Amino acid sequence: MTGRFFDLTNGKASRRTILKGLAAGAGLAAAPGFVRYAQAQSSAPMRIGFQAHRTGIGAAYGRWYERTTAAAVKAINAAGGINGRPIEVVIEDDGTDAARGAEVVAKLATQHKVDIVYGTLFSNVVVGSAPTAGELKIPYYVVSEGYHVASGKLNRYVFQPGITDVRAQVTSVAPWIAANAGKKITMIFPDYAFGYDHRDYLPPALQKAGAEVVAKIAIPPTESSFTKYFPQIPSDTDAIYHVMVGPAVLTFVKELGDFYGSSGPKLFGFIDSLEAVDINSPGLEYLDGSHFWEGSPRYAQADDTEAQKAYRAAVDIDDNGAAVADAKDVSTAAHMFGCWETLYVIKKAMEDAGYKGPEDRAKLVEATEALTEFAEGPEHPQGKKVFNGKIHQCFGTQNISKLEGGKLKVVHKTAIEDGMYEPEADYTKQSL
Amino acid sequence: MTEASTARVYGLHAAVVAVLFALNFLLPDYHHGLFARILVLATFAMGYNLLFGYAGLLSLGHAMFFAAGLYGSGLAITYLGFGVPAAFIAGLVCGALLALVVGLLALRTSGVAFMIVTMMFAQALLLTIVYFNQWTGGDQGLVLQQASRIVTIGNASVDLTVPTVRYVAALVLFAVVLFATLAIVRSRFGRVLVAIRENEERTRMLGYDTFANKLAAIVLSGVFCAAAGAAYALLFGYVGSNFASVQYSILPLLWVLAGGAATTLGPLIGTLFIYYVTDIASSYTSAWLLIVGVALILLVLFAPKGILGAVRKRWIRWLP
Fold first, then answer.
1. pTM to 2 decimals?
2. Which residue of A15, A93, A221 is in closest CB contact with B25?
3. CA distance A334 to B300
4. Is the dihedral of CA B93, B98, B104, B106 positive or negative?
5. Does B28 contact A92 at a Cβ distance shorter than 8 Å?
6. pLDDT (tens digit per residue) in A244-264
7. A41-164+337-389 architecture in CATH?
8. In chain B, how long is the greatest CA-to-CA distance?
9. How far, in Å, CA of A310 to CA of A287, rounded?
10. B195: which residues sit within 8 A by CB, 6+ positions away?
């Protein structure tokens, strides 16, 4: 998995030639390498660097992102790979840390010599790593759902083609919340990046739908008890919109239940809080009857498409969204489909670009930007997507599910258009 | 101190800088980039070492000084349109002011209380950064675009995103702080700091204003750490609140302890050691923290004074 430590044969010639002082000698030394590459590239694997959250707060997501990636690569390779070349995945752990993330991108690009970098979820890691990807001019396909890519704040080498962003998600579900949960909404969200996208984009979307946010309660990331925040919830609140990420969610729900007893406002939450958590865990009883956003449904649905069924079988999850081999190992089904779909987008873009090696990275960027639509099917089992090449972001359907009888049942699917917004950037104007 | 020993000490440090400069041409790409980061973070560790190693003040909040430089320069570029040199100076000023204020308050305590107070200030800064997330980007942070990281002097421009330029810039910062630290620890002021570390009461009894000397040490330490923070923002283009977290208060302590507290080159050795143990171990196992932990335990068992501390004790007694 790891490249050679202090591999002196792989560095840029420019710096060393200064010391060696013999340009011709350096050229000769480099020449055999080029010859080998030219011979090998027709059949050599396509190397995809996977920036994985194996440790740190994102580890539960990271575990399932790895499994989904392995399943997708197996399927792609079985069908002939990309441009006739098999995919080889090189994994490096970023510890879910922004600073380490940038180092991992550099390591994958310059030591492992991968063709592209892929797979990052946590937005702080994406934002921390993006400058390095841009400087190294290596395409960086993230599966993060943050609005950071579409906002235009990153650079031309960063894409999010396999999962929708939070702005689109909240914009899509707001009309349903206004029509079904109530007109006065209190938001409870984590006081860090993931929460900000909700804080910033839900209120205008609700207002457009005829509802309003009556209170925004930001919970600091260090908080472990929540009861003291609940008196801030206005008494005329119709529904609580909650987005809590991390292990504190169990305490949050339990304390919310203790606070309201058998009554209280309706609840609408983002499943992000409960990804990889058994929805029937003790303490979560208060969520029964409430609604959740899901990117892709955790539980098998009666109207699942053949593509969805095949995907679930490929990633080895059962009808309850847990690992087939271990019913207690609950997946991150609402997000991990993004890995599967992103890899197929990469495949399509590489084939469109006629990608042969790192010298074609600019072509790959342009080919990705030229994509417009991904049809629902085995490559995109979550559903059809529309891709905006200017903001490097895809748009798709969202699921609203009701928790009843210990299972999440999809009660509404939004339309792709529900989540679309006016682009605020155009990466294609940046130089390559 | 004889002239010969002075020449020997400065010669050694100049040789280390020369080797690091030569590595600019020799290192493969990945390690070249990693070394640039290590040089900046070793500068952070040198700032920490001045206070901890020489003055004997154990701070658990030095991330705040690194973050002051990081955000001082990053926010100045993002919102005030500062150029690179002005942004770097803004970072230094932020670090100096913060260190002065924190020093004036925290030095009213000592020992464990000093550790807790510095940690408290650092947490307060972290929560402030998160609270003003609409400007700071909170934990997600801010990206400094490549165009804003180009130094223009007359008709010439220096692009800090070019690997060689970045490496040399990091080395210049490292060398300046290394020689500044060396000059400080060999000066009368430096010896007073060591005296305070060894016996503050006796130093005071001898007529030294220990409060003023400790305050000066905190401000200098804060400025060095802020310089590292500002350089990190400008060279690597990312400003994030994780650099203000407790992790980045513990890391310089770890780097200094591993390399050898109260040795001028220890912070570099320690940062290199921890960085490479982490980097290599994480390539093989997700339990890399366990390997780092075992390495540290072995270090404590066999070299309790750190790598260079052990070298000084056993072989090269003149190491500063």
1. 0.87
2. A15
3. 46
4. negative
5. no
6. 766 677 888 888 888 988 788
7. 3-Layer(aba) Sandwich (3.40)
8. 58
9. 30
10. B202, B203, B206, B208
| Interchain proximity B240–A11, CB inside 8 Å | no
Q: Where are the domains of chain A?
A: 41-164+337-389, 166-294+397-419
Q: In what order do the strands lie in the sheet with A212-219?
A: A212-219, A184-190, A239-242, A266-270, A291-294, A399-404, A407-413
pLDDT single digits (tens) B128-141 = 998 898 899 888 89
B122: three-class secondary structure by DSSP = helix
Interface predicted TM-score (ipTM): 0.87
> Is-contact B66 B186, C-beta < 8 A?
no
CATH of A166-294+397-419, one of 1.10.10.10, 2.40.30.10, 3.40.50.2300, 2.40.440.10: 3.40.50.2300
pLDDT at residue A237 tops 80: yes
Q: What is the DSSP letter of A317?
A: B
The residue assigned the tokens 């190992």 is A329
* Residue B232 contacts residue B170 (beta carbons within 8 Å): no
Tokens standing for A184? 């006065």
| Distance between CA atoms of residues A233 and B123, nearest Å | 27
- Are B133 and A15 in contact (CB < 8 Å)? no
Name residues 224-243 of chain A within 8 A of B (Cβ).
none
Task: List chain B domain ranges.
Answer: 3-244
More confident residue, A333 or A282: A333
